[in-house]
Design goal:
Order of helices and strands: HHHHHH
Structural class: mainly alpha
Distance between the termini: 38 Å
Oligomer: single chain
Length: about 110
């Protein structure tokens, strides 16, 4: 295996996959049924994102339950990705455009 090319290939694969998701979201018939939630935003502000998610699903959830659930959500701290700084830069370069498009659709 060529780790450098594998990183580029997987980043391109991710970008292609999520480009298709963006294509679907642009279709109004599909768009109303999909909600994209940015994982980082979810970890930073779980109470707000949970409220948005439940509202999108037309679920009425008591605020105290949402607060309780939000307390259990955070970014994982139990692992490191293991990529070098150069590999992280490659991933960012390969996925940057699609990430920006996703964020424009994220709640």
């Amino acid at each position: 295996l060529d780790k450098g090319n594998d990183i580029i290939g997987l980043a391109k694969y991710w970008s292609n996959l999520y480009s298709y998701v963006i294509y679907l979201i642009k279709d109004e018939a599909v768009n109303q049924n999909i909600i994209l939630i940015d994982y980082d935003d979810f970890c930073k502000d779980p109470q707000n994102i949970l409220s948005i998610l439940y509202s999108h699903c037309e679920l009425v959830i008591d605020t105290t339950k949402i607060v309780e659930q939000a307390k259990t959500i955070s970014a994982p701290s139990y692992y490191k990705h293991g990529f070098t700084d150069k590999e992280v830069d490659i991933i960012k370069t390969e996925t940057e455009t699609v990430q920006k498009m996703i964020r424009s659709f994220s709640k």
